[in-house]
Amino acid sequence: MEFPSKLIENAVEELAKLPGVGKKTALRLALHLLKNESEDTFLLAESLVKMRTEVKHCKQCHNISDTEVCGICSNPLRDKSLLCVVSDIRDVIAIENTSQYKGLYHVLGGVISPLEGVGPSDLHIDSLLERLLPNSEVKEVLMAISPTMEGDTTAFYLTRKLRDHQNLKITSIARGIPVGGELEYTDEITLGRSIVERTAYGRA
Amino acid sequence: MEFPSKLIENAVEELAKLPGVGKKTALRLALHLLKNESEDTFLLAESLVKMRTEVKHCKQCHNISDTEVCGICSNPLRDKSLLCVVSDIRDVIAIENTSQYKGLYHVLGGVISPLEGVGPSDLHIDSLLERLLPNSEVKEVLMAISPTMEGDTTAFYLTRKLRDHQNLKITSIARGIPVGGELEYTDEITLGRSIVERTAYGRA
């Protein structure tokens, strides 16, 4: 694709580096910015640069944060005996949006994936183990890792690492039929697990 | 959606103003930028601001340009007797990519659309008429406006405005079955026009 302007071409190239944005979409975005007030473009650029330079990672749970320790970790109303292990910041946001969880988090920053060269040392596993030392307040670790092969491997690895912690309860988010899901269209593994791990009626 | 950081929230809000970008996509883009080198974010922001502040519109054809007069208008190899009228800058890029057109352009900046409050005076129609004054080099005006109701209205309006220009040939891009298109799946209007406006065999 040839562009009538080097400036547009540069902008399109940079935009097209974003995930899921091809050259045509990038051009549409660039022309949209050109059509609107320049103030809009400045605000967008400023918010991105500000985010990139100023966002911190919570030194306790590795969630993103505006402060050294994030709002969840520093909230005295959160249950410090419950620790939810997730792979990604997006999982924290998803779980927070359910309003069903009042404990703390630990963001691993990915899952173990030998194919992509991600080993346990690339994840925030050491700091997780530190948070679970015998004198820790944590009584339960809830594994909320996506049930992919890499996710299951990671959860299994962590469970092995934690097996000596006698008083620590390790739980996993429930697997089963999604609310609103149709039984007949559910894959066999999920349906099978939903039967094996059936719950007392009225519990959910 | 609640965010663990005001900085992220701002960035997501700004990104979500882009066309076709919802909050979830915006969050994915923001987290992608956070994961990558900060240099990438700076380059993106800089290219957008630079584009927005420095891109000019060609004072002759209203195409985007890095200079006062765009590269097409100032190119001595282009055929100055042929003028292609398009509604949008993207149409110029699309036509340029075909390598089939060697004339000049005139970008209207939209189409007449009473529903959206766009009248002839909101478009670059006066400057088009100026380019077509009797002493003009232009011998043919090629209407390359999308065949929507608004597009057809605009083309019709322009044709009426130009009917006194006795020596000016007014043409339109051909309507017909797209190359690779299936006859049986083509809508009746297109198929009908492709028959009425049939061309001598071997011309296309």
TrEMBL record, chains A, B:
Q: Which organism is it from?
A: Pontibacter fetidus
Q: Which Pfam families match?
A: RecR_C (PF21175), RecR_HhH (PF21176), RecR_ZnF (PF02132), Toprim_4 (PF13662)
Instruction: Note whether Cytoplasm occurs among the keywords.
Output: no
Domain Toprim, by residue range, is 81-178
Q: Which HAMAP family match?
A: RecR (MF_00017)
Keywords from UniProt, A to Z, are: DNA damage, DNA recombination, DNA repair, Metal-binding, Zinc, Zinc-finger
Q: What does this protein do?
A: May play a role in DNA repair. It seems to be involved in an RecBC-independent recombinational process of DNA repair. It may act with RecF and RecO.
Q: Where are the zinc fingers (C4-type)?
A: 58-73
- Protein's UniProt name: Recombination protein RecR
Return the InterPro entries for the record: DNA_Rcmb_RecR, Hlx-hairpin-Hlx_DNA-bd_motif, Rcmb_RecR, Rcmb_RecR_Znf, TOPRIM_dom, TOPRIM_RecR
